[in-house]
Amino acid sequence: MSTQAERYTRLDQWIDAHFDEEVRFLQALVQVPTDTPPGNNAPHAERTAALLNEFGWQAEAYGVPEAEVKAYGLQSLTNLIVRRPFGPGGRVVALNAHGDVVPPGEGWTHAPYGGEVVDGKLYGRAAAVSKSDFATYSFALRALEALADHLPPGILKGSVELHFTYDEEFGGELGPGWLLKQKLTKPDLLIAAGFSYEVVTAHNGCLQMEVTVHGQMAHAAIPHTGIDALQGAVTILNALYAQNKIYQGITSNVPGIQHPYLNVGRIEGGTNTNVVPGKVTLKLDRRMIPEEDPVAVEADIRRVITEAAATFTGIQVDIKRLLLAHSLRPLPGNEPLVEALQKHGEAIFGEPIPTSGTPLYTDVRLYCAQGIPAVIYGAGPRTVFESNAKRADEHLVLQDLHRATKVVARTLLDLLS
């Protein structure tokens, strides 16, 4: 194998020969629930580590201290690192995917934890986002490892790390954020879980807040003796939703990202149908385009809530920040990642693979905050909507998994050659 092209072919052939095994690996991961909340994800990490160790690796398990996990609102959390050195010098390239997911919800026609394969699609919660890339990255690394056995010493330099973490749904601070803070890893480059038809180099930020409206309970027969917290909350909701019309006039210059948006995803309150509600809690999500200042965004949301509350006599409002995830912008030094993924993506998929932004927020921002150039690429469709991620019948087209694994394996070969 004197040429790089011949080495690409050997990687492809290994992945072809082991693809059925890769599918079974992903099925095993989907079949262990990781609903967050409640966030009891240590059992999945244990299962994943056992499967990784069967490949001859030593999966390092890092359990986050219980007090930190409980304070975060989760039950258990263990992060995994696999380190595979190939030769002295060279880069450390990390591959990160998260195993935590939202609960399955209703409307499924396939078992959410069955890992069922029908018509070339694997169904199950996290099949697409992002247990799929536990498989993509593990089998890309295995293919490179098999190739290395046939290469002369010195061809490959550097190492590959797998980072499998479990709190992306809560912001990543106890996943990649914790691993980086504890100085357990400091890669030179990072590829994180994504989809197959674009290389994502930027993403939105996210502000999540909890708004508690306090009124005064009263019997519904004599409502004038109370203060209706729900009506007060409606006043605040109307003011918040009115902001979305303003946000539509604020556009991003990043392809794939349009404008800011505000969503109220959860409302709780009241005690019974015949009682004037004394307390109502809202949880909101404000997506921020990369050009926005998070401090100014939060200050403006607080202003809107406070001004709206002042128009409804008698209520009091508490505002609490739940999450502030900064947006991702491309870091200098990400060019080797982008160029390799685009080159091999076009060769394998037969079409150009553009760079783009995404309205999602991801754990990648935590690596970039430490100066680590990163991109988002993995196995999946053209859009989140197509995958049914966070909806019923989430699925992954297995052909995308097959081809993306080849793209990542070839990219690793380039980065370590």
CATH topology grouping of the largest domain: Aminopeptidase
Lateral strand order in the biggest sheet = 1-2-6-3-7-16
Mean pLDDT: 96
- Low-confidence parts lasting 5 or more residues at pLDDT below 50? none
Whole-angstrom Rg: 23 Å
Order of helices and strands: HHHEHEEEEHEHEEEEHEEEHEHEHEHEH
The best one-word shape is elongated
Task: Specify the helix fraction band.
Answer: 25-40%
Structural class: alpha/beta
The biggest beta sheet reads: 6 strands, mixed
- Helix run count: 12
- Looking at CATH, the homologous superfamily of the largest domain is Zn peptidases
Number of strands: 17
Query: What's the CATH architecture of the largest domain?
Result: 3-Layer(aba) Sandwich
The proportion of residues in beta strands is: 15-25%
Number of domains: 2
What is the distance, rounded to the nearest whole angstrom, between the alpha carbons of the first and last residues? Answer: 13 Å
Query: CATH top level of the largest domain?
Result: Alpha Beta
